[in-house]
Description:
Elements: H1 22-44, H2 54-61, H3 71-87, H4 98-108, H5 111-124, E1 129-135, E2 141-147, E3 158-164, H6 171-174, H7 178-189, H8 192-197
Antiparallel strand pairs: 1-2, 1-3
Amino acid sequence: MAFTLPDLPYAHDALAANGMSAETLEFHHDKHHNAYVTNGNKAIEGTEWAGKSLEEIIVGTYNKTAVAQNGIFNNISQLWNHNQFWEMMGPGDSKMPSELENAINASFGSVDKFKADFSAAGAGQFGSGWCWLVKNADGSLAVTKTENGVNPLCFGQTALLGCDVWEHSYYIDFRNARPDYLKNFLDNLVNWENVASRM
Length: 199
């Protein structure tokens, strides 16, 4: 069964007051995300990966030793990444649940230190990629960054929060100011209840 583009969990203009414009969502979701769906379906057609889940394809096609990943991985991983990304954001003022705050404090010392580490990872990712808050197999939390479409599934980690730092994610609203985009993401866009639910 072919993968489909999921609807946004909110209207295109729902995040505008929080710093992500309707124009960004129209380009990012309707065009970029949709291209990963279309190209991913084409890439797996007639292969052993047809009929497998996104997660199975990502883990099965990731090559730890490759400088660049293949077309199946790139498109399917980006499809999964974006499915998560929309859910990790939301309109309004989201409060961090105590369970998540306690886990962040235990791993980073404070929420402010976590935010600084997360922002530094995103700003420091050379070229396109993502920064993540992940849960390791031992239950500890960590901040990571990945190139292009690589994600925590490739390393046996649980993605709690991910921020897309490809230019198409922020250039309309923030031009080349990636650090400003990251600060706004953490301060105004994250759906912390969703992040906590992934623990």
